[in-house]
Amino acid sequence: MKVINQVKLEMLNDSKNEAFARVVAASFAAQADVTLEEISDIKTAVSEAVTNAIVHGYSNSVGYVGLDCKLMDAENPLLPVRVLEIEIRDNGRGISDIARARQPLFTTQPELERSGMGFTVMETFMDEVIVDSSPGQGTKVILRKEIGAAGKLPKKSVKSGVDAGSEAGGIDD
Amino acid sequence: MLNLYRKGAMLVVRLEGELDHHSVADIRVEIDEALEENLPEILIFDLANVSFMDSSGIGMIIGRYRQMQEQGGRVGFVGINQKIDKLMQVSGLLKIIPIIEGSEADESNKPSQTGNA
Ligand SMILES: Nc1ncnc2c1ncn2[C@@H]1O[C@H](COP(=O)(O)OP(=O)(O)O)[C@@H](O)[C@H]1O
Ligand SMILES: [Mg+2]
To answer: Which residue, of A31, A141, A149, B52, is most buried by count of CB atoms within 10 Å of its CB?
Structure first.
């Protein structure tokens, strides 16, 4: 894939930067031919990943959250597809069991009223979510969305957390 | 930003703007203070003017829902708008918290019209 444009940014882990990161990602995405719904999806997914870096990665320590936005040409001769790739990085505590962390309703911070739905939201709102992390090594989350392929690819169905929730012990009725 | 007002047995929380981890911190404190003061039977979240919400907003709402449940109270939504609908679907919140018709919420303010008018 050919990189068309790229923006790199480092932010202090101040929770005010959650809104800032969303605006940056939305503005960057606006140069591609995105729909309002796609912009809203991108903002939500970026908000989840940046919040995780601040809340879980650094919790009480000070550090930087990296935001790297890339617009790429998929070089698909049949479809004029562009791929928006957003990487969110922290040098915080890292994740020991990534598969478990990605489960709907799983959270290590229930006392902070975390819902455990962050990764589920990222996965539902983006086309691809890659998580690279290990304890003490920080966390890198890559969010990808195909732009311009809407309607040509099978739509993802929206699954809800409560359905998957019984065994994870999340939301009770 | 939020606006709180009492309507009979209900406490209505009208939320405005962006609901994320940052903004939810103050909102949570204000709602909890109002809950303690008013001890409402029903807590209504009016989300009509919410322009953005992520799972931190979901967590805050679930927290208030649990609190109301412990006191035997109920929770309802009004004003689920298009900007937050997808998130509400994914979270499964709409399966445990019902959407109340706007007019229904208005009616129960009038003492003469409570019940099944
Ligand atoms: N950047 C990160 N650094 C360390 N741990 C993380 C990070 N992101 C996510 N996690 C872990 O994955 C879990 C699930 O994340 P998420 O689905 O966003 O739910 P929540 O944020 O509500 O806990 C978190 O509770 C945390 O244990
Ligand atoms: Mg999260």
So the answer is: A141
Check if A57 has its Cβ closer than 6 Å to any atom of ligand 1.
Answer: yes
Contact state of A160 with B28 under an 8 Å Cβ cutoff: no
- Closest among A144, A56, A143, A156 to A106, alpha carbons compared: A56
Q: Tell me the per-residue pLDDT of B31-88, one tens digit each, with 9 for 90 and over.
A: 999 999 999 999 999 999 999 999 999 999 999 999 999 999 999 999 999 999 999 9
Domain ranges of chain A: 2-169
Residues in chain A: 173
pTM (predicted TM-score): 0.89
B-contacting residues in A 47-106 (Cβ below 8 Å): 47-48, 51, 54-55
Query: One of A13, A18, A38, A52 is an active-site residue; which one?
Result: A52
Question: What value of ipTM does the predicted structure carry?
Answer: 0.87
